[in-house]
Write a structure and sequence with these properties.
The protein is an alpha+beta fold. It contains four helices and nine strands. The protein has a single domain, classed as Alpha-Beta Complex (Nucleoside Triphosphate Pyrophosphohydrolase), CATH 3.90.79. The longest helix is centred in the middle third of the chain and has 13 residues.
């Protein structure tokens, strides 16, 4: 269940080896650029197409940009795979088996004075139906051929979130 607007949302601060070193309020961690644990979920259908979501226009950073099926942060004390499953259900309205794919770190200054500094765990899964998106989180979605996606990322990088542009080439190298 998504946290309510009255609830403080915390992230897990980590060191460069993903060892937990503390907890901080999410917006503060993004304003200060503190390294914290995150996850991204890549979903593919039986035709090898990747599920993309367009972030809702009300997001506090990177609104209206295309990205992977979902991404977020585990809550303190929450297993990262459980968190990925929870957010996939909350954002895209479905569940599927998720498998760890790879981990990477990135740091980038974003819009609205935010700094993403994340140790990102990437999971992959398979799903063959249409998602039932949460319009508070996602404004649109599409299945896209990965070859065409690779070309579009090169041609229109401003249409995509930074973390997706960083993670997608890693996934391609591993395939």
């Amino acid at each position: 269940m998504p946290q309510t607007t009255n609830e403080v949302e915390n992230v897990i601060l980590v060191d460069e080896n993903d060892q937990e070193i503390g907890v901080m309020e999410k917006l503060q961690a993004h304003r200060e650029g503190r390294l914290h644990r995150a996850f991204s979920v890549f979903i593919f259908n039986g035709n090898g197409k990747m599920l993309l979501q367009k972030r809702a226009d009300n997001k506090y950073h990177s609104p209206g940009l295309w990205s992977n099926a979902c991404c977020s942060h585990p809550r303190p004390g929450e297993d990262i795979l459980a968190a990925a499953n929870r957010r996939l259900q909350e954002e895209m309205g479905f569940s599927c088996r998720l498998n760890p794919a790879f981990k990477f770190s990135y740091r980038i200054a974003l819009d609205q004075g935010m700094i993403e500094n994340e140790f990102d765990h990437v999971f992959t899964g398979r799903f063959n139906d249409d998602p039932e998106i949460n319009l508070d989180e996602v404004s649109d979605w599409k299945w896209m051929d990965t070859g065409l996606l690779y070309e579009d990322l090169k041609k229109n990088p401003a249409h995509y979130t930074y973390w997706f542009k960083a993670a997608f080439p890693v996934w391609l190298r591993l395939m």
